[in-house]
Structures are given as C-alpha cells and as structure tokens.
C-alpha cells in the first residue's frame, strides 16, 4: 500500500494543478477589469499564490510558474514553449482565462528532483 | 584552477544564453512585420532553435524556453514568473526584442540535473 502511494506522489498531476491554478486566478482578478496600475501586483500575486499552493503539496519537484496578463484591445498575442527534460517524470500545465477586458495565461512547469 | 573551470562548465551562464536567444529571434523574425497567419510557426521556430542551441552546449541542465509574440496595438501586456528551485545552480534569462510591428519576449529557465 505504501509503495503504491509513493508511486502516485512522484508523477506530475496536470489535472489537479489545472484546477488549483484556475482557483488562484479567479481569486486574484475574478471580478475586476483591466487596470494598468494594478496589473503589476496581480501578476505577482497570481504566481506567488500558485507557487505556494504547489510547494505545499510536498512533492519532489522544482517549479516555474509564469503568468501573462494582456488587455483586450484587438492585438494578436501568441505564446509557445518548448522543454528539454525527462518526459517520464517532468510535466507542464497551461491555463487560459479571460473576462470582458483581459486575457490571463498561466503556465506551470514541474521538473523532478532526484533525491 | 581546474575546479574553477569545472564550475563554469556546469553553471548557468546568462550572457551565453542571452546571445543564443537574440540570434534565434533575429534569424526567425528579424526582418518581418507581424502576420497573423505566420506567427504560429515563428514562435515554434524561435523556441526550437533556442532549445537546440542550448542542448548543444552539452551542460547538465534541463531547459524550458517560452516565447511570446505580441502585435503592437497599444494594448498593455504584463508577465511575471516565480521559481522554486536551487538558487546556487539554477538560473533564468529573459530577452525583450521589438521591431516596428511587434514585441517578442523569450525566457529561458535552466535547471541543474
């Protein structure tokens, strides 16, 4: 039983992370409109809360959390990422969120740590 | 002396990575104006080129490369990232590039194995 559990803990669970990131974004910018003065603290807040939540899970991973917030004004935005890692143990998760005035894209990368 | 050289070979060198990023961006979109139909292949091309140059360095690192291309239209864009890693061995490098019609932001994260 214990062996089965440790197998579970070591893999990157993208679905779980997806849900917790969405909650995090909703919590910070959920009911707001794009505000140039506040966007700085919003992005910082989103990445910090997401990271704290991930670290609390206590899994053997290094994390990188990236957040981009863009005002809706007709401009085109394209993002891409590529990773050179161990596909068996490492993983990533990207969440796209929007409201009437802005887009928010959050990416989480998790790289396994060999203990 | 030998110890110092080994450390350099296995450290994340920001200048070196910055140069690789700039070359990849220039080679892919250097002379172009923003085109909605091509931006998909541009972002892919930039990250792939960066990644292959980085892996050629032969250092014991895992890499994550992200690229954002945005049309210049007056919109505001803010990005932030935070990392939970080993400060003594891991590092990141972000390069902001622009021309008359678009912005391009490339970030490379290197995590020691």
TrEMBL record, chain A:
Keywords: Cell cycle, Cell division, Centromere, Chromosome, Cytoplasm, Cytoskeleton, Dynein, Kinetochore, Microtubule, Mitosis, Motor protein, Nitration, Nucleus, Transport. It is found in: Chromosome, Centromere, Kinetochore; Cytoplasm, Cytoskeleton; Nucleus. The keyword Cell division applies. The keyword Nucleus applies. GO terms for molecular function: dynein intermediate chain binding. Pfam families: Tctex-1. InterPro entries: Tctex-1-like, Tctex-1-like_sf. One of its GO terms (biological process) is cell division. One of its GO terms (cellular component) is kinetochore. Acts as one of several non-catalytic accessory components of the cytoplasmic dynein 1 complex that are thought to be involved in linking dynein to cargos and to adapter proteins that regulate dynein function. Cytoplasmic dynein 1 acts as a motor for the intracellular retrograde motility of vesicles and organelles along microtubules. Probably binds BUB3 as part of transport cargo. Required for the efficient progression through mitosis. Homodimer. The cytoplasmic dynein 1 complex consists of two catalytic heavy chains (HCs) and a number of non-catalytic subunits presented by intermediate chains (ICs), light intermediate chains (LICs) and light chains (LCs); the composition seems to vary in respect to the IC, LIC and LC composition. The heavy chain homodimer serves as a scaffold for the probable homodimeric assembly of the respective non-catalytic subunits. The ICs and LICs bind directly to the HC dimer and the LCs assemble on the IC dimer. DYNLT1 and DYNLT3 compete for association with dynein IC (DYNC1I1 or DYNC1I2). Belongs to the dynein light chain Tctex-type family. This is Dynein light chain Tctex-type 1. It comes from Eleginops maclovinus (Patagonian blennie). The lineage of its organism: Eukaryota, Metazoa, Chordata, Craniata, Vertebrata.
From TrEMBL, chain B:
Its main location: cytoplasm. One of its GO terms (molecular function) is dynein intermediate chain binding. Pfam families: Tctex-1. GO terms for cellular component: cytoplasm; cytoplasmic dynein complex; microtubule. It is found in: Cytoplasm, Cytoskeleton. The keyword Metal-binding does not apply. Keywords: Cytoplasm, Cytoskeleton, Dynein, Microtubule, Motor protein. One of its GO terms (biological process) is microtubule-based movement. Belongs to the dynein light chain Tctex-type family. The keyword Cytoplasm applies. This is Dynein light chain Tctex-type 1. It comes from the Eukaryota. PANTHER family: DYNEIN LIGHT CHAIN TCTEX-TYPE 1, T-COMPLEX-ASSOCIATED-TESTIS-EXPRESSED 1/ DYNEIN LIGHT CHAIN.
């Amino acid at each position: 039983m214990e062996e089965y559990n440790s197998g579970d803990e070591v893999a990157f669970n993208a679905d779980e992370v997806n849900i917790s990131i969405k909650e995090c974004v909703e919590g910070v910018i959920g009911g707001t409109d794009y505000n140039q003065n506040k966007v700085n603290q919003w992005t910082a807040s989103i990445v910090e809360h997401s990271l704290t939540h991930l670290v609390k899970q206590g899994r053997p991973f290094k994390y990188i959390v990236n957040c981009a917030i863009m005002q809706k004004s007709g401009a085109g935005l394209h993002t891409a990422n590529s990773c050179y890692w161990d596909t068996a143990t490492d993983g990533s998760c990207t969440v796209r969120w929007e409201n009437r005035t802005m887009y928010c894209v959050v990416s989480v990368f998790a790289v396994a740590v060999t203990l | 002396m030998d110890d110092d050289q080994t450390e350099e070979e296995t450290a994340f060198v920001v200048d070196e990575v910055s140069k690789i990023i700039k070359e990849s961006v220039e080679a892919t979109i250097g002379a172009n104006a923003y085109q909605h139909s091509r931006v998909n292949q541009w972002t892919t091309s930039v990250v792939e080129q960066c990644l292959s140059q980085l892996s050629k360095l032969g250092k014991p690192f895992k890499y994550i490369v992200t690229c954002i291309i945005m049309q210049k239209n007056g919109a505001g864009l803010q990005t932030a990232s935070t990392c939970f890693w080993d400060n003594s061995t891991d590092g990141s490098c972000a390069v902001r590039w622009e021309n008359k019609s678009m912005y391009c932001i490339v970030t490379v994260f290197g995590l020691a194995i």
